[in-house]
């Protein structure tokens, strides 16, 4: 499978495309208490690839589904990367 890129995110979701350096804490290392912006393409992409690694998701359509779930169902209370990732892990089986 080809690597999942930011440009593979669903076009139906209007993401901000701010340039974030690859060494920025928002998109590097392990998920942490860094604030999570679900409207920022680079941050959503980072969270999707981390979640896909944990769940061993490989199909592009599965990764797109994660983006759609983040957009439509991730609670507003999930304000950090850790909270968002934990919520996805706890709720993924519903989707």
- Number of DSSP E strands: 0
What is the global morphology? globular
Tell me the span between the first and last alpha carbons.
Answer: 22 Å
User: Ranges with pLDDT <50 over ≥5 residues?
Assistant: none
Average pLDDT figure: 92
| Main beta sheet | none
Rg over CA atoms, rounded to whole Å, is 12 Å
Question: Beta-strand percentage?
Answer: under 5%
Helix content: 40-55%
Spell the H/E element sequence.
HHH
Helix/sheet category: mainly alpha
Number of helices: 3
Describe the structure.
The two termini are 22 Å apart. Helix content is 42%, strand content 0%. Helix 1 packs across helix 2 and helix 1 crosses helix 3. With 95 residues, it is mostly helical. The mean pLDDT is 92.
Secondary structure blueprint with pairings:
Layout: H1 41-55, H2 60-73, H3 81-91
Helix pairs in contact: 1-2, 1-3
In short:
The chain is mostly helical.
List keywords for this structure.
95 residues; mainly alpha; 42% helix; globular
